[in-house]
Amino acid sequence: MGPIGIFDSGYGGLTVFREIAKKLPQYDYVYLGDNARIPYGTRSFETVYAFTKECVDQLFAMDCRLVVLACNTASAKALRTIQQVDLPLYPDLRKVLGVIRPTTEIIGDYTKTRHVGILATPGTVKSTSYPIEIHKFFPNITVYQQACPFWVPLVENNELDSPGAAYFVQADIKRLLQQSPQIDTVILACTHYPLLLPLIKQYMPPHIQVLAQGQLVANSLADYLHRHPEIEQLCTKGGTTQFFTTDSEVDFEKKAAVFYGKKIKAAPLTLG
Ligand code: DGL
Description:
Elements: E1 4-8, H1 13-23, E2 29-33, H2 45-61, E3 66-69, H3 72-77, H4 79-86, E4 95-97, H5 100-104, E5 115-120, H6 122-127, H7 129-137, E6 142-147, H8 151-156, H9 163-177, E7 185-188, H10 197-203, E8 209-211, H11 214-227, H12 229-232, E9 241-245, H13 249-260, E10 266-268
Parallel strand pairs: 1-2, 1-3, 2-9, 3-4, 5-6, 5-7, 7-8, 9-10
Helix pairs in contact: 1-11
The structure holds D-glutamic acid (DGL).
């Protein structure tokens, strides 16, 4: 038995984790941010897979039996291989879940026009995971994507309301919406982006609804644990959380407070 592992390339996963912790406070959690190697969003498939697998193995070594990739880039580029190739090699039951499926399986409840926009990292856009997954559930929805290469660095550097952030947020939203006047729903398909929500709302026409993933993923995890008692009973219930970062814990604690909404204590971790 062990805690539930939550992984992100950095701080972004905290926007998902805070909703999970709110919804399911009874479990123990270990959060791992690979801050030393962020961003993942501009890296190749091979690199994102190798980095993600290393971090998942680390969480498994910390006794996690269930790991959530609270990162769209890792979910898009590494999850399938980990599930299909790596997990069967483990001698005991381990599960890894991502953030894309919980988002795509309910998107049909939100869009009326059946035209949906995706704002994401270049890696997630290039993987075409969102159009593929949405079409599996809703073949009649048309998906438009826009890569936002500068948004993660802006968020990581706490440039949340600077003129630079405003410029790129406005420009990328414009590029997305130019693809179709029928878009009525936009998914923030990167766990860093909810931090830019005040700016995003400023530049998004009011008739377009903007979806962040935190609550969607938390609801989906609660449902998963309910449907899979064989996994649920492997998750310890002490209500504790430990935070680890592959970079400086001092920086992590300072910035994590912004993402998580409250102060935390973190410990440094060397992979391998
Ligand atoms: N938070 C990650 C995501 O959801 C992206 C951050 C990165 O580029 O590493 O896609």
